[in-house]
Design goal:
single chain; about 300 residues; mainly alpha; DNA polymerase, domain 1; hpI Integrase, Chain A; 2 domains; 13 helices; about 55% helix; globular
């Protein structure tokens, strides 16, 4: 791989994190996509690439039968990389500027019914500090619609439980307030007072403003993967025939609000969507739900 291109990539990742406020996870994903492209280029400098060269690369990766969404993501990453190179005046050419990504097939978000959510919650045992922590996390995901990264990133300074409010930082470090139900608040309060101090035997557990709310057994911030695994374990134990992730809880939260008549703008604010077009997909989900109910219950359907 060209050494100069390799350095440009490292600088680009730093730019994403420091200036664009991308999460480490997102920046790493961008870097991975671009690294594959640079390896394919070999000794050729990324500054010498033209539109045809990028198109040749796209034809190459299509042999691996990636989904259209994956190819679209790779094109988007390369486009952003070249925008950065142009910004730094390393090149005047963005060979991906006019390249269209393949259209992604439209798919409705997967969601759980309230009964399915309650089934998961009720089967999440609370007989140990770790299990009580996991139950609290699931209660919060269902009550607030937070992203898993927003939840794991919570510090004590973000909590305003007297007002049933939590301040979270979403994509691009955008700040917003989410509302907490009384039930979720009760679990969170009990977790902080009783379970959290017992999670890390032998380690000092403090509650300073900048301390993480959710911690592991060494006292450090809980990672997203641990939360995903906790959900997976419960779902498998009850044989629920659905793939359930933290984001499915988020979809379920939004879908239920829309079905109960919540204003689309309010749901947008609660979810932290930059554009209302991202929120509108839940109206389609709600319409599909109405159709399903109609077909099951109307005698002439």
């Amino acid at each position: 791989m060209n050494e100069n291109s390799k350095q440009y990539l490292e600088d680009f990742k730093s730019y994403l994190i420091v200036e664009k406020n991308f999460s480490e996870h997102t920046a790493r994903a961008y870097k991975s996509d671009i690294l594959s492209f640079l390896i394919w280029l070999g000794d050729c400098s990324c500054l010498d690439v033209n539109f045809n060269k990028v198109r040749e690369y796209i034809h190459f990766i299509q042999k691996f039968e990636y989904k259209k969404s994956t190819i679209g993501r790779k094109i988007s990453a390369i486009r952003t990389f070249y925008k950065y190179l142009c910004r730094e005046k390393l090149t005047e050419n963005n060979p991906v500027e006019n390249m269209n990504a393949p259209k992604k097939p439209k798919s409705l978000p997967k969601f759980l019914t309230p009964d399915e959510v309650e089934q998961i919650l009720n089967n999440t045992k609370i007989d140990t500090p770790t299990r009580f922590r996991n139950r609290t996390i699931l209660e919060l995901l269902w009550a607030t619609g937070m992203r898993v990264s927003e939840l794991s990133g919570l510090n004590f300074e973000n909590l305003n439980l007297e007002q049933n409010e939590i301040t979270v930082f979403g994509k691009g470090a955008k700040e917003r307030i989410v509302l907490v139900t009384d039930r979720a608040k009760t679990y969170l309060t009990r977790y902080i007072e009783t379970a959290r101090p017992l999670l890390s035997p032998g380690f000092e557990v403090t509650q300073y403003d900048t301390d993480p709310v959710f911690i592991n057994n060494t006292g450090f911030r809980l990672q997203n993967k641990t939360i995903r695994n906790a959900i997976k374990d419960v779902v498998e134990s009850i044989n629920l025939p659905k793939k359930v992730t933290p984001h499915v809880f988020r979809h379920s939260f939004a879908t239920k609000l829309i079905e109960n008549g919540a204003d689309l703008r309010i749901v947008q604010e609660l979810l932290g969507h930059a554009s209302i077009s991202n929120t509108q997909i839940y109206t389609h989900v709600s319409t599909q739900h109405l159709k399903d109910v109609f077909e099951k219950t109307h005698p002439r359907a």
